[in-house]
Amino acid sequence: MTEELSGRVVLVSGGSRGIGAAICRRLAQAGATIAVNYRRSADRAAEVVADIEAAGGRAQAFAADVGDSTQVDALVAEVREALGPVEILVHNAGLHHSAMAHKMSDAQWHEALTVNLSAAFYLSRAVLPAMREAKSGTIVFISSASGSVAQVGAAGYTAAKHGLHGLTKALALEGARKGIRVNAVAPGMTNTDMVAELDDEQRAGLRQRIPLGRIASPEEVAETVHFVVRHATYATGNIFHASGGVAMS
């Protein structure tokens, strides 16, 4: 462990698995105190906490559905009571429905927008007052290459991630004079549970569409988040692409 982020309280939504779990471990390694949010995966959240504590860090798991604004307000209050005010927010929780637009149900559409976009707003609204009072704070949204390019069968997800990029810029503009930085990290295909379910032929097809020719690890995305939080101190309102070249700007 290092002391880069010593004492800083970080809330990571969807922190029990995949990219979120990797972010929790990486920022804990940098000395931060981690609030691991989860919705259903209590056992996996407990594993992340145990890993961090075994390495000499500090972490605690907190259950909440971040798509519910009432639960978000309660979550942020609970984290404040247990660990202190949230100084760094990483909104990682996300959801992807595979359905062509003409076959997508209202429920699928609304769920995609709620989890991927509205939750980012709810969390930001809950943590911003304390950040504004402290005149310091960092928010990182985990977006996607789909926030810059479209893909077939993901209208809700693509629309939400494009919206997330707009929210990033709007909040960055509002927070800048208060010392609050807001950025997004946009991964491409990453080796998470969803990719693990694909067969070899499907994986090969995915790799062919990636200029770097391989699928990212969650740890690589977490390193990008660490860079944005710790080192990109003059960057705000930016979208940091970590997609292997899928989204080039």
What is the CA-CA span between the terminal residues?
A: 35 Å
> Structural class, please?
alpha/beta
CATH homologous superfamily caption: NAD(P)-binding Rossmann-like Domain
Report the sheet-strand fraction: 15-25%
Shape: globular
Number of helical elements: 8
Any idea what the CATH architecture is? 3-Layer(aba) Sandwich
Listing every helix as H and every strand as E from the N terminus to the C terminus, the arrangement reads: EHEHEHEHEHEHHHE
Poorly predicted ranges: none
Helix content: 40-55%
Order the strands across the largest sheet as they lie in space: 3-2-1-4-5-6-7
Mean pLDDT: 90
Extended strand count: 7
CATH fold group: Rossmann fold
CATH class: Alpha Beta
How many individual domains?
1
The main pleated sheet reads as: 7 strands, parallel
Radius of gyration: 17 Å
Commentary on this structure:
This protein is of the alpha/beta class and 249 residues long. It has a single domain (9-242), classed as 3-Layer(aba) Sandwich (Rossmann fold). 47% of the residues lie in helices and 16% in strands. It has helices at residues 18-29, 42-54, 69-82, 106-134, 155-175, 193-196, 200-208, 218-231, and strands at 9-13, 33-38, 58-63, 88-91, 137-142, 180-187, 239-242. A seven-stranded parallel beta sheet has the order 3-2-1-4-5-6-7, sandwiched between helices. Helix 1 (18-29) runs parallel beside helix 2 (42-54) and helix 1 packs across helix 8. The longest helix has 29 residues, at 106-134. The model has no long low-confidence stretch (mean pLDDT 90).
